[in-house]
Amino acid sequence: MRGILICGVIILCFLLSYFIPVKEAVSDDVKSCLRCHGMKSFQKKLENGETLSLYIDGAKFEKSVHGSLDCSSCHPDITLKNHPRPKKIADKRVYTKEFSKNCLTCHPQDALMKPKMHGQIVKKGEVLCAECHGSHYIDSMKDWKKKASFNEYCISCHKFNISKTLPSKEKISLKVNEDEIKKSVHGKFQCLVCHSDFSKVNHPVYDYKNKAEYRTKMTAICTKCHTDKELQKNPAHYALTKTASCIECHGYHGVKSAKVVKSLPENQYCLKCHSSSIVMKMKNGETLSVQVKENDILSSVHKKLKCTDCHKEFSRSEHPIRTFDSIKDYRTKAKDICNNCHQDAVKKYDISIHAEALKKGNQQSPDCVKCHDYHKVTYITKDKMASSELCIKCHSDSGKAFKESVHQQAIIQGKQNAPNCASCHNSHDVLPTNIAKLGDSCIKCHKDAKSTHTKWLWNPPLRLTTFVDAHFNSASCASCHTKAEKAIYLTLFDRANKKPLTNSEVAKIFGIDIKGVKAKIDYNNDETVQQDELWKFMSTVKAKSKANLSGRIDVLNPNDAHKIESKEKSIKDCSYCHSSGAQFKSKLEINQEGTKPIKLELDRKALNSAYAIPNIKDFYVLGLTKIKILDILFFVALLGGIAVPVGHITLRILTAPIRRKRKGGK
Amino acid sequence: MKKIYLHPLPVRIWHWINAIGFIILIITGAQIRFVDSMGLMSFETAVQIHSWLGFILLANYFIWLLYYLLSGKLFKIYVPPFWRPVEFIKNSIRQAKYYGYGIMVGDKNPHHPTPENKFNPMQQISYLMIMALLIPLQIITGLILWDPELFGSLAKLIGGIQIATLIHTALWIFFSAFIIVHFYLATLGHTPMAHIKAMFTGYEEEHE
After folding, report:
1. Given CB atoms, is B160 within the 8 Å cutoff of chain A?
2. CATH code assigned at B126
3. Please, which residues 2-31 of chain B have a Cβ atom closer than 8 Å to chain A?
4. CA dihedral in degrees (B3, B5, B11, B12; nearest 10)?
5. Can you give the pTM of this predicted structure?
6. What is the per-residue pLDDT across A205-249, written as a single tens digit (0 to 9) for each?
7. What SS3 class is residue B147?
8. What's in the keyword line of the UniProt record (chain A) (predicted)?
9. Domain that holds residue B125
10. What number of other Cβ atoms are within 10 A of residue A369's Cβ?
11. Which of A7, A53, A508, B105 yields a CA-CA distance of 20 to 30 A from A354?
12. C-alpha distances in angstroms, A354 versus A385, A387, A411, A434?
């Protein structure tokens, strides 16, 4: 059917061609083609739905530089006799690309490469010949150049989606929107007013390494008219020119007037520049985005604040130039901004493990803005799950463990009193777990914990909560309420000031650097502290400090402490701990200021050695930490106790004849 | 055959409660300590019995103390004549010689118990030590271990829970050996059952 239709159209074209007047100047070959292609309605539907007109204006074609050529000069595969069957064409660009190749038969690439810029375009093939020069009605370059205005001349190429890839792999769009220029304060300018090094014969090529260099160098164009002297008149603006280039605030071609901006409300005034993707460079080369998204502010808890409420040193007339050593330095100072209103929170944060870690150079450690964001300031309390997720971003292992807990279940069930991370670890004053007294956090919610434990955890004849306390003080809640592997932790403790003895204090005792402390304990360097190593270490420490080892039972892997199970599954078997056969690992802890303690593997034998008596004075778990030598002594004493009567009886039997003799003698 | 009323009823009651209690405390103590190798009872049962008995014997100790204080016999019976040290030492050596040698060759026991002078010098010194020092120590350290929190200050005074445990365990070892020897010595009367019987009836038989 389709074939018949096409044949019909061709026959009709032939018939009609006799009635269409064709100018004599064009060749017979062209005339033959125009019999069909001279029809204005002659068009083709492309595969992507576009319509491609197949109409050629013979008169216009005749006047073009290619007017004297036959159609077959550019369409070598098409003759009257051999007109290809309807071609499948994907879209106009593909079609243009295919036919632009034919230009190269007469215009050899060598010649096209000579003008530098033109050569680059030809080589890259970003713009096709026909896209700039047209297809059938090509003007003479000389005439067109003379005729075209500068804008027309430049835009003829720059209206296309052309781009330049810099050595930094960044791409710069070279497309210019003419309308944008017309609407701008530079609307009446010709391209050459700013791009004065360009002309119709000269098209220099810039080799900027990256976008930043490009922006800085291009800014030089602006200062030709807007001199440094002029800019200095407004100190705020002048300061800005030192931190951001002109184009970052005013744009490239759609240049915005600064005067309009001044009359805007304050936040809008600031956002005029800060809504662009501008960055701040630190002394150490780090860059920080100082772009502010308006929506972030509008959706934040600070939506009612003005920019200057936080950024007090800035105003419409003041924009100080600030220099920071690094992002870390910047973030430390950013905290001061929060401190203006949130002194309590900042004070608490300052003693936290997070603040210490940040001070020590851990960039990942959170400060105010890491959790609350810079401008999208969020209030973290209501949504317990979201609040937890925030911590889990960094503490993924703990988060994973927490998901197995009854606490997470409670959050999912939407229980009002369900705990999240902050319920136990606090939100601002997050402390190292060994100092934080996490057990107290459990009691905060489980207020009746002592009385419920007294129901079964008591020693006859009296039920006393003090007996529960004795257990609460020496074992973490998690040690009974999780199935995780357990360990005995010995912590070096200063009995004089009732605080853990820190790493640096130990280093001072030994007169060494803190890095050397570990070697003073594990001196055979086998990653385990043996009993002789521990006691040698302890005797040195004790000679100079009232040190002792305090102990507790806890889960071996701290993450497991999050896997709290329902109370029905908790451990209630006393001999789970109170037995020398309990498979508990043991660890030696030395605290460090503001951070997690050093943990060393400890040989369990050290706890059952007689040396434990003077060194672990305040920690004893019945059965678990018993001194083994006393067991031997018990058996020796039993044997001795039996040996006395047995020996005595034996002697009495042996001496019986003497007694008999004496009795007889009487 | 002379019968001497040596053990008044309160003393006998105290003694037997103490004796049974001591044995059970030693055994339950062993069960608590050797929970993973001894299977007499569960850990919980052992602890329960041990704690109950601990308090019973604590009360029993005060019955003994009260009786002896009120009867005024404590000083006479338990306190050796430290004002006559040479004589006491001589008597002690004589008594030791009797047990180590004299008894073998048929010598007479140099000590003749009377209600006012019940113990021989060796008994006197060892019972004084036990009743005035070791049992109170065992009670105090037992209380510390019974509730280390409630008796935390006592633990501190004694030098920490570790020292309290050491004392309690060492005394357990001592008492375990002592009770065997004590039982044997009780059979060294004029007949093997003489002293034991006396501890039930109160009357000690003595040959003229």
Report:
1. yes
2. 1.20.950.20
3. 30
4. 30
5. 0.69
6. 788 888 878 877 887 888 888 888 887 777 777 777 776 777 777
7. coil
8. Electron transport, Heme, Iron, Membrane, Metal-binding, Signal, Transmembrane, Transmembrane helix, Transport
9. 2-206
10. 17
11. A508
12. 21, 17, 25, 15
